[in-house]
Amino acid sequence: MDFLEVIKSIFTLSLAYATVRICISIVFAGMGEMITERSGVFNMGVEGIMLMGAFTAAVVAHFTGSPWIGLLAAAVVGVLIGLIFAFVAITVKANQAIAGLAIYLLCVGLSGYLLQVLFAHGGNSPKVETLPKIHFGFMEHIPVIKDVFNDQSVLMFPALLLPIILYIVFYKTPWGTWLRAAGENPKALAVVGKNPITIRYIAVLAGSFFAGIGGAYLSISQTSIFSEKMVNGRGFIALAAVIFGNVKPAGVFAACMFFGFMDALQFTLQTVIPDQYFPREVFMALPYILTLLILGGFIKRSSGPADISNPYEKESR
Amino acid sequence: MATILEMRGITKRFGDVLANDRVNIKVEKGTIHSIVGENGAGKTTLMNICYGLYHADSGEIFINEEEVEIKDPSAAIKNGIGMIHQHFKLIPAMTVAENVMLGNEPRKNRFFLDIDELNGQTHQISEQYRLAVDPESLVEDISVGIRQRVEILKALYRKANLLILDEPTALLTPQESEDLFRIINRLKADGKTILFISHKLKEIMQISDRVTVMRDGKVVDTVEKKDTSEVKLARLMVGRDVLLKTAPPSKKIGEVILKAENLSAESELHHRQVLNNVSFEVRSGEVLGIAGIDGNGQTELVRALIGLQKLTKGKISLRGKDITHLHVKEMRDAGIGVIPEDRLVEGLVVNFDVQENTFLGLQRNKPFSKNGLLDWKAVASNAEQLVEKFDIRTPNITHPVRLLSGGNQQKIIVAREIFHAPDTIIATQPTRGLDIAATDFVHDELIKQRDLGKAVLLLSLSLEEIMLLSTRIAVIYKGEIVSIVNKDETTAEDLGLMMLGGTYEHIPA
Ligand SMILES: Nc1ncnc2c1ncn2[C@@H]1O[C@H](COP(=O)(O)OP(=O)(O)OP(=O)(O)O)[C@@H](O)[C@H]1O
Ligand SMILES: [Mg+2]
Q: Please, which of A29, A100, A271, B114 could form a disulfide with A238 given CB 3.0 to 4.6 Å?
């Protein structure tokens, strides 16, 4: 094979299609975590919440026959787990990283256990109905667009709108100002009569809501089955994207797209370059290695909220 | 005259500390009412209760002679109370206007911020009260004096009739303080009531109508300004006579210890010349005071001396040894003790306890390190000793420093740096936020260290403090040392003029 051919067979429109398809779940989780971090809370449990979201969506879709009800249930479960985290991290003021890690472990255990109890066969749920894919007639005639955006999941639309909506909320509404203030200096909010604790709770719940949806997308849209390993670090990648994107909507969105692209690329490389030339594990590890490299280089320059990870104490000084 | 605020029988306990003990205070409408008291007397606590940040264990609050319950700051705001805190409550990453309006932003179409109104209204109230600010600049880019105006505007925007100012002048230069007093007097003329806290008795005598004195959580007395004096107030505060006194002349001035030669430096941001050929020497047994108005290079000079500011040229030596390019840690090991400008950021780890903070940065030195391990017994006994000597008001030595009153935090740094510097002490604003007794004590200790043969470099914005302690005085203006004189051969007036570079115009308030 000549080199140019190889390159051509890698960078195709289906790679672009796959990038969009893959990044949807990371965008939901990343946007959610961005809301949470803006308020000054760092939720490392995103991966776990996504896992429970994926699990719940598949199970509920299986038993009700409706992926829509599955999606709703996943969001609700996300919020409930978020509530546990918020209580531990905000009210009890536990170390946020440890609380997040505990949430993650809890979710891994819980989804694995419930999977066993419900379906009694290892590692997977049964196949379920998926959310619709959207096909626009008018797109059929637009080159590139038709290959990349047509026939994507219905969830692509909210995923693409979310960064824009959040940009408006963050910078053009009073609530966004309060959210940012809670993350910068919660006492400044307290002295003007706004309760930073309430704001942080709402932000954590909103973040978990979107993480739940991001998880659900994996099991009832990107695929049609829940499997134990399905989230596969996407929650942690979303955390990285938030840092990489400086906790700002456009930046985080771009970072999510980038990580989605890396993932799509490694899938493509696996198929294009035969196994005998190169061990596929190297490709599979690629997005994670890049995450580490990029974070190593960028984390110092990133400037997030000033009060991130500090619990707010009322009668403190 | 009508009473705007009355607090009756207020008691507040933090664990073992009785911060307020059946406090009664009555504030008349349209007056400037001051509260004075030692560090830890409970002034800030009382004001925080009035503003709904703390909850009293018992007691009642009356606003305009009606009993009210102030359960949170929004209740205080509703009752027309505004508070400017000892540590500002601003968001550096947001604009002046966003800070002023935070929590009550003007909206358009119900859901959106009205940015034009936000800036416009901020501009309008700043005009109305003649508190010039630029609504659109970021708070992180403006000076401390202007930040304070933003805090005042915040209260005025919320229609406060009673403004509480907790040590507003602690961080201000004398000139900025004067501007503040003019603002306060204008607010009074507008019918506002001011509750003012300060350790500077001169200021208290200058602007108050009435003064309440607190000690150990209790109100000792409330007096009319016209019936009292600085001396009387000090006596009420500490229960004995204290008067800041001029230090006795240096006993024995010895060899040169710290020497700066032609130090020049530029600011990182705009490459403005911040130090220009600064040269001086400090000898064993003397105090060299650096007088100057804030922002004339003092901060950069100290940073240069401790290796934090890059020099474009020049040399620093300690006992003849070149230390120009040493790292902070090595400087400290070489024998320099530093009382930094910003205690919360540079001087303390506020989440550590008292004993940890009393040996911060010295953990590898004797007697704290034994065979490479920490000797906690030595740490504790050192802490006990300093707490006792400096009268640091803390329930015990394992109390987190963050919970101490502002002045007591400052005492910890001073104690640590004074006692562990073998050669040289660089003291930047060593008595900021300290009450008169503590100030007197720190002055005495600095002089004792001087007489032990240490070299003391004193930077203070208070000309009075410089005059009291210095053997020689260097005046810094626009990054240059314009003159070095013997204390005995100069007057405050002469120094004042030199500090202004010959001229001074008040910033229009
Ligand atoms: N949140 C808190 N937790 C524990 N102790 C506290 C708290 N706030 C104040 N204290 C204690 O209450 C006492 C009174 O403190 P307060 O801050 O009211 O003093 P202050 O008169 O304002 O002193 P300063 O002049 O030094 O500012 C101090 O002993 C302080 O340590
Ligand atoms: Mg105080």
A: A29
Q: What is the pTM of this model?
A: 0.83
Q: How many domains does chain A have?
A: 1
What are residue B501's phi and psi, to 5 degrees? 65, 25
Residues facing B6 on adjacent strands: B26, B62
**Total residues found in chain B within this entry:** 509
| Count: domains in chain B | 3
Interface pTM, i.e. ipTM: 0.88
Burial grade of B482 (CB within 10 A; 0-12, 13-18, 19 or more): middle
Q: Does the distance separating the beta carbons of B99 and A315 come in below 8 Å? A: no
Residue A136 lies in a domain: no
- Domain end: B173, B205, B238, which one? B238
pLDDT by 10s per residue, chain A, length 317: 577 887 888 888 999 999 999 999 999 999 999 999 999 999 999 999 999 999 999 999 999 999 999 999 999 999 999 999 999 999 999 999 999 999 999 999 999 999 999 988 778 899 999 999 999 888 888 988 899 999 999 999 999 999 999 999 999 999 999 999 999 999 999 999 999 999 999 999 999 999 999 999 999 999 999 999 899 999 999 999 998 899 999 999 999 999 999 889 888 888 877 766 777 788 788 777 877 777 676 655 556 788 888 888 876 66
Residue B176: closest CA among B134, B144, B208, B142: B144
Any chain A CB within 8 A of the CB of B507? no
Q: Which of B406, B421, B436 is the last residue of a domain?
A: B421
Any idea what the CATH number is for the domain that residue A28 is in? 1.10.3470
Q: Please answer yes or no on whether A177 and B104 come within 8 Å at the CB atom.
A: no
B403, B414, B439, B442: residue to mutate for ligand 1 pocket, most atoms within 8 A of CB: B403
- Name the CA dihedral angle for A275, A277, A282, A286, rounded to a multiple of 10 degrees: -100
